[in-house]
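Box 3.1. Reading complex inputs
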Amino acid sequence: MKIVVLVKHVPDAQFDRHLTGPGNTTDRDESILSELDEYALEAALQLSEARGGAKAGNEVIALSMGPAGAVNAVKKSLQIGASSGAHLSDDALAGSDAAATSLALAAAIRYLGADSPVDLVLTGMASTDGETSLVPAQLAERLGLPQVTFASSLEVNGEHVVARRDGDAHADTVEATLPALVSVTDQINEPRYPNFKGILAAKKKKITALTLADIGVDAAQVGAAGSLTAVETAEARPPRTAGTIITDEGDAGIKLVEFLAAQKLL
Amino acid sequence: MAKALVFIDNPGAALKKSSLELLTIARSLGEAVVAFNGELHDDVAAALGAHGASVLYRPSATDLDDYLVAPKAAYLAAAVAASGAGTVLLENTADGKEIAARLGVKLNAGVITDVVGVDADGTAHKSVLAGSYTTTAKARTAVAVLTVKPNSVDVEAPAAAGTPEAVTIDVPADATANAARVTGRAEKPASGRPELTEARIVVAGGRGVDGDFGPLEELADALGGALGASRAATDAGWIGHDYQVGQTGKTVSPQLYISAGISGAIQQKAGMQTSKVIVAINKDAESPIFEIADFGIIGDLFKVVPQATEEIKKRKG
């Protein structure tokens, strides 16, 4: 089975995050592998291992698109257990919105499937920076693949994909045939951590560096030029400040209600 | 006159407030038209007319719910083409965003999610990076696709109600090819409380509730609010994942958010820090939640919450 897992290098949410420059793009210093992509990688590794792993010819390719530093998301994925990596990087990609991103990633996935077909594309439920959840659905549309998104469980039996998708009003069982695109939620598994053996093994694993020319995408189709949306203004919201803090002396519940009444919230 | 098309998936027996909000925004942009999927009751059709819909598009197929997202996007693309709409408005739900995503590819249209306001010129307002920035964004394309969060506008009905024209849209024959099929559906029990993302008041509990959401449920009911939870509480299995507020759960911005027994890690804050008023109750004075609380109580939630509930009941008589 050949699986491509999309991994994104995102600003660490533990620190302050900023929008910068004329395009109001995300400042990518202090970036890490997106936490939500670890669930997709874990799902891929479990599917591969259940089929005998790399020895039995199963492949888990971690694909990331982003500037030079984004290769670190690929490296981390290799340490966790992906069999190989690919890093799509090109100056012309800077400022890509979801449409331009999905266009470039679709071309990269086609490139990775040129020698042997990709059976499954796995992604997280959203990036932890853009948080739009648009890219998985747009990739499925562009690649003409069945879309099985927000999976909280996933089974692959032969050519058959079965997933659970939880909504507010109902939980659905969703089925599709391979090849397919699946996005997974943080409910699907417990991602593993890289161990010492994995960290050493990762050094010998191959990372393919890809440019737009390699995947046959014109620079005008991506980046700020190829994006279908533009962020026109960005304003940092003033940080919330702490208000009144009291220690309960037996009447805090009453004081709470008095506060709500004063705020006209009752 | 510019047209804005509102997509309403399964309008049901009565229109949701969020659908009326989308119609209000549509009319602020020009002529409002509606594309729906599923059954349409007569009184719902009348309500759509009363809220300014001039045309009601329905799909030629009745099996769109048997598939995930894809055929609905194909139907909607055909409806947009038939109507000539320049803006498409959808709910900001998982399905809404994904239908928007695919529609954007089909129409080569810019898609903007998590919108909280739309100007007359189509500029969309949203907050990003867990509420730390507010941005304005605009589609650069002939058609703009926007998914709008609930409670973004006050519902307004036009002075005169119209009778909308009914038009059936042929769903493309290949709409269900390569679509994932929904083979099972388990309805979840309704709580009777307002929907979490739409609620005016949210009462949320975390690790500190130690498995007992009872006192918080009573406070939520006394206030007419929704119940929420931190990931620590949902991961512990004390309450369903549907209740989770935070980065991997729901993002809420109610008038009042009462946080009880939640420390306020960054992932939790990401889901609630745009709330208008935040009240925090926690035993630990060092909890980061107190840094963003308008009113904080250092104390035992099992004492404070029931006392507050009782006081509210007393005042409300």
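In summary: The helical segments of chain B are 17-29, 42-50, 70-83, 94-107, 214-223, 231-235, 266-272, 301-316.
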